[in-house]
């Protein structure tokens, strides 16, 4: 099969980690007889420099035509002026909105060989942590009405959390489907003791639960969830939650796995098209030094194979190769610990590639 991939390398370490990932995809293509075609596109800071805007029209159009989008990272100090009207991160919102990507899947997996990277105690981690956070991405307070106001001479500001049943149902469905492919346990997180929008969220999740009798569902308030994630993370399998709660909890979930350089993500919509990117940023402090960890982007490509192309065996081949390389003690600087072998971006990419071929 032929698959068209729109590639946005972006800024900072983006191009470095994307290069290794494309090598891996080519290797998977050769081994399993697929052809991946790439179209390299500008977005983020580099697009501001060349075109004056973070998301040029032709980039969005090409992404719409592609089967999937692979993104490195965007942003950096050069474009970081908080007063600037044009910012690299606007490219991400434009891509999510323009491609209708309303769901963000973030697996937070603590690999056994990286146990020491987690800030949690051994007794809490046990044999590992494996959580998948399903975050609503295009609704809620980040997209609701907002503004400034002045009441009785006092200046104020407001943001609005708003969800409708359809928005909750479509993200809920993805969460239940994800749970069905995993350990069939779903925790829906809200603030239904206070927020009306959370009460609607809970009602829709309960309705959906009837369609998935095999999935064990529980509801949890967000403040409790923030605690439970560090107290007993092993109780979670799949978490589904709103845009803002998901933003915060998915960062917390990724922190307990130890390294930001290891965590992939997928943004999905109604169809098969998705955007795949590491959760880390452009790491300007280490850009150009050849020491960035490309594994989060490589694992994002594995998610692309699984979710956009239905190539489960190929996705597993990448994930298995990554685990083998870690088990053999190879580490980039961000995950390095005593007794292991320090390697750079290209070397670890090559090691994963060799494992896939072996
Ligand atoms: P960051 O994720 O870029 O870096 C945080 C720390 O983690 C840094 O010390 C960095 O060196 C390290 N790090 C990150 N990824 C790594 C990797 N693959 N290998 C080794 N070390 C890694 O976050 P930040 O410093 O807050 O942001 C830097 C820039 O990236 C900002 O302009 C920010 O807006 C942008 N950003 C972009 C995205 C995105 O494109 N999706 C996400 C977050 C931040």
Which key terms come to mind for this protein?
358 residues, alpha/beta, Isopropylmalate Dehydrogenase, 12 helices, globular, binds nicotinamide-adenine-dinucleotide
Description:
This protein is an alpha/beta fold and 358 residues long. It has 2 domains: 1-101 and 270-358, Isopropylmalate Dehydrogenase (3-Layer(aba) Sandwich), CATH 3.40.718.10; 119-256, Isopropylmalate Dehydrogenase (3-Layer(aba) Sandwich). The protein contains 12 helices and 14 strands. The chain has helices spanning 14-32, 45-51, 57-65, 90-98, 122-125, 165-181, 196-209, 222-231, 243-256, 295-307, 312-327, 345-357, and strands at 2-10, 35-40, 68-73, 103-110, 129-136, 146-151, 154-159, 185-190, 216-221, 238-241, 264-268, 274-278, 330-331, 341-342. A hairpin with a 5-residue loop joins strand 11 and strand 12 (274-278). It is globular and about 65 Å long. The chain starts with a strand and ends with a helix. The chain binds nicotinamide-adenine-dinucleotide. The site of nicotinamide-adenine-dinucleotide (NAD) has 23 residues, from loops.
Draw up the topology in text.
Blueprint: E1 2-10, H1 14-32, E2 35-40, H2 45-51, H3 57-65, E3 68-73, H4 90-98, E4 103-110, H5 122-125, E5 129-136, E6 146-151, E7 154-159, H6 165-181, E8 185-190, H7 196-209, E9 216-221, H8 222-231, E10 238-241, H9 243-256, E11 264-268, E12 274-278, H10 295-307, H11 312-327, E13 330-331, E14 341-342, H12 345-357
Parallel strand pairs: 1-2, 1-3, 3-12, 5-10, 8-9, 8-10, 13-14
Antiparallel strand pairs: 4-5, 4-11, 6-7, 11-12
This protein binds nicotinamide-adenine-dinucleotide (NAD).
């Amino acid at each position: 099969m032929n698959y068209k991939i729109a590639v946005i390398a972006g800024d900072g370490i983006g191009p470095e980690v994307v290069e290794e990932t494309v090598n891996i995809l080519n290797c998977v293509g050769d081994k399993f007889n697929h052809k991946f075609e790439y179209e390299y596109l500008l977005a983020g800071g580099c697009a501001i420099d060349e075109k004056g805007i973070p998301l040029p029209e032709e980039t969005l159009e090409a992404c719409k035509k592609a089967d999937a989008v692979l993104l490195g990272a965007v942003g950096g100090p050069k474009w970081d002026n908080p007063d600037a009207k044009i910012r690299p991160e606007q490219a991400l919102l434009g891509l999510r909105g323009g491609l209708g990507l309303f769901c963000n899947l973030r697996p937070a997996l603590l690999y056994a060989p990286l146990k020491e990277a987690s800030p949690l105690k051994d007794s809490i981690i046990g044999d590992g942590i494996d959580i998948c956070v399903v975050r609503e991405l295009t609704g809620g307070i980040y997209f609701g009405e907002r503004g400034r106001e002045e009441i009785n001479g006092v200046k104020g500001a407001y943001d609005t959390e708003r969800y409708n049943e359809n928005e909750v149902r479509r993200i809920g469905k993805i969460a239940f489907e994800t749970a069905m492919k995993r350990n069939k346990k779903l925790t829906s997180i809200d603030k239904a003791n206070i927020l009306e929008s959370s009460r609607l969220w809970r009602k829709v999740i309960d309705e959906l639960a009837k369609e998935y009798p095999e999935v064990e569902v529980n509801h949890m308030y967000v403040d409790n969830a923030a605690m439970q994630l560090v107290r007993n993370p092993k109780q979670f399998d799949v978490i589904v939650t709103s845009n803002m709660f998901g933003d915060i909890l998915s960062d917390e979930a990724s922190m307990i796995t130890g390294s930001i350089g290891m965590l992939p993500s997928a943004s999905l919509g109604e169809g098969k098209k998705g955007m795949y990117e590491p959760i880390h940023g452009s790491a300007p402090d280490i850009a150009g030094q050849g020491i960035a960890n490309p594994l989060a982007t490589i694992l994002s490509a594995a998610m692309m194979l699984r979710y956009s192309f239905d190539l489960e065996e190929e996705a597993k081949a990448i994930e298995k190769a990554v685990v083998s390389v870690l088990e053999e003690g190879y580490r980039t600087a961000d995950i390095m610990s005593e007794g292991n072998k320090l390697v750079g971006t290209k070397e670890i990419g090559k090691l994963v590639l060799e494992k896939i071929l072996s």
